[in-house]
Structure formats: structure tokens, C-alpha cells
Amino acid sequence: MRRKPPSRAAGTSHHASERIHRSSGNPFADLGFPDPGQHLAKAQLAHTICELINSAGLSQKTAAQRLGIDQPKVSALMRGKLRDFSTDRLMRFVIALDHDVVITIRQARDHAHPAVRVLAEA
User: Fold this and answer.
1) How many C-beta neighbours within 10 Å does residue 66 have?
2) What is the mean pLDDT of each run of 10 residues along the chain (122 residues)?
3) Strand, helix or coil at 30?
4) 89 exposed, middle or buried (CB, 10 Å; 0-12, 13-18, 19+)?
5) Homologous superfamily in CATH for domain 34-122
6) What does the domain layout of the chain look like in residue ranges?
7) Is this prediction's pTM over 0.85?
């Protein structure tokens, strides 16, 4: 049985202890993950791979064959379970889906926080 969230009277505010914080642009950094740039890059690569699989109309079974992995690993990848996937492995998946991976090195936007970023073209 689902419980209804407590209702709030019109015009009342959140608890005084609740604050809104501006995002850094990286949710992994905002949540205090170690090596947040690496986590974000993996998430962005996985998202791109999912888009490539979907746009090609591939089933998970067919995608697994193309990527050289089993279907449960494709399912894990598509659900964001990225623990078993290195950044290098994800880049190889992009290549297996007939797309190039181009690595560019340039000056950091924020010199205090250099980052790894994934920019995907359509």
C-alpha cells in the first residue's frame, strides 16, 4: 500500500534546514563522489551508447553481439550500472557501433578543476 505524502497547507514553506544549492554541473561532484569527472565521463559515454543502440534499432541481443558482450551486460549498461565498464571499454563500444572517438586536449575552462568531458555529435 502506497502512503500519500504529507500535504502542506497553501503558502507554507519547506523546513528551515532545507537549502537549495547551485549545481557545479557535475552531479557526481555535487554528491561528493571520488573522481567525479571520471564518473561523469562514463555516464555520458553510456548515454551516447544507448542513443546509438536505440537509433540503430538494435535489440539488446544484437547490440551485445556487436559489442562483444552478453545481453545482461547490455541491460546493465542501459540501466546505468557502469561499475564493470571502464572508460576505455565504453569508447571501444562506441567504435563497435560505427562511430569515431576523438580525444581533444585543451586548456581547462576552470583551472582549479580540470575535467574529462564527453561531447557527442549527432
Assistant:
1) 16
2) 53 65 80 84 94 97 97 96 95 96 87 80 68
3) helix
4) middle
5) lambda repressor-like DNA-binding domains (1.10.260.40)
6) 34-122
7) no
